[in-house]
Amino acid sequence: MPLLRNLCLFVIMAHLLGMPVMARSDLPYPEGPLTAEQIARQVHLVIHSGLLRNALSKRSKGEAALIINRATLAKRRSGSRPSVSSFETYINNDPQNQAVDSVRMAIITSGKTKGTGILLTSYVDPKRSSNMLMWLPSLRKIRRILEPDPQDYWFGTTLTYGELVLRKPDDETHELLGEGAFEDCLAVMELEPAEMSRHTKHLPGPQCAHQGKPVYRLKSTSRRNNWWYDYHISEIDKQSFAIYRTVYFKDAKKIKTVSVDWQSLGLDDPRITYPRYIYGVLHESGRDSLVYIPRGTIQHNVDLPDRFWSELTLKKKAR
Q1: Overall domain count for the chain
Q2: Residue 9 burial (CB < 10 Å; 0-12/13-18/19+)?
Q3: What CATH code is carried by the domain that includes residue 297?
Q4: Half-sphere exposure of 63 (CA within 13 A, CB side)
């Protein structure tokens, strides 16, 4: 169902902003030479957790987190504009209930599904499925959502559930191809003047600040047969373990590139970062997507009571 697919995206956006926040991490900062497997586990920590108690992203001084999707090259017309949605997220990675790993809320703040909210509860027990609830303001009801297929796309984006949430280090085999320096600028969605709206006229340009930073080059091969990719090669910051760029291959052909502008939150552990933007492009069709999260929208270690992370808050925030 399109509605459920659209709403599940905002669960993932909550997870994205939760990448740097996990109060119960037991993976210390590494020292000395690392194996490919150790690098992959550090990357997974950065992508899916971190070292803060909680974090949130909400509209501030006119800025909001945005998702921008653009059609394939063949379907683009002069003057047509990409679709744009805004959202807010709230993440708690230090709940009082020790059986709960994290609780996350996501609220749609613009578009046809404005006011719809998601509450996602993840558990410490890896065998226990996450609990995903959706608030539908038009029906004034809570609905339960099943976990998605890892290869499905979110909300028409070029990003899959597996890439952003569901994939684990053990789902792939890893090979360290070498070390070097990040050589060029990170790509980003670049719009023609006729494609811009008031929401997209201030999007960031290509990020060149990471040029020259030391990186690992890691090849990760899927253990799944007949999967949508065979392997991907990632360039990973040696200090923060943030992935700047991942290129996916199928039948030895480059099929997709995902670029992420990871930025520090200015705290002691260099792994505590956030994705200023995530840009994915499908090379055959040219279809691309951008998730943009302005720094001014993010707060962390906010003093919020445990009861805040509840269905009641979800309903109030989503109105």
Answers
A1: 1
A2: buried
A3: 2.50.20.10
A4: 14
